[in-house]
Amino acid sequence: MADELVFYTNPRSRGRIVRWMLEEVGQPYRTEVLEFGATMKAPAYLAINPMGKVPALRHGDAVVTEAGAICAYLADAFPQAKLAPPPGDRLRAPYYRWMFFAAGPIEAAVSNKAFGFAVPPEREGSIGYGSFERVMDVVEAAVSRGGYLVGDHFTAADLYLGAQIGFGLMFGTIEKRPAFEQFFQKVTTRPAFARANEIDGAIGRPQRAAS
Q1: For an engineered disulfide with 103, which of 9, 68, 94, 155 has Cβ 3.0 to 4.6 Å away?
Q2: What are the pLDDT digits (tens) for 119-158?
Q3: Model-level pTM?
Q4: How far is it, in rounded angstroms, from Cα 8 to Cα 10?
């Protein structure tokens, strides 16, 4: 199909973020579950994503990789879902800000912290996120204002940043500040999150052998 959405994922990956976004969009899509080190590194999939990682999305002939980029693409491809301010709206400014902040400073700071890579204080000016503590303080201030990150309703920015916070709280790479827990709880009350979680949970469960 010319406009078919094909979602490449594994339930033990950032693909869970994109699954949530797809459920928010509400368009039909087909899922291809890939295995680490096997189908994920096979030539057929490397032709889609040379990094050999998931998630990835194919929309007809268009291919998008990276969870944040896929969320942004879906929000624009299906504007009827109202998951992004329309082009030309000034609210695109904070929308872009938080999408890229989650994909850049948050991802880098949390990953480096998790693997024990500490930036010397005198070199913080040379790295994009500055320091882990500064990033966490900026995120806390953003989610403590009440409401949502962009305007007065939920967008892909809330989904993507909320998912980053959720992963951090789950794996202990982000400290359990009350503002983080409250924001994650708020954005995950959405029916699309519950549907996505149920789908990925079912995929991730071992299959019973037939009797």
Answers
A1: 68
A2: 899 998 889 999 999 999 999 999 999 899 998 999 999 9
A3: 0.93
A4: 7
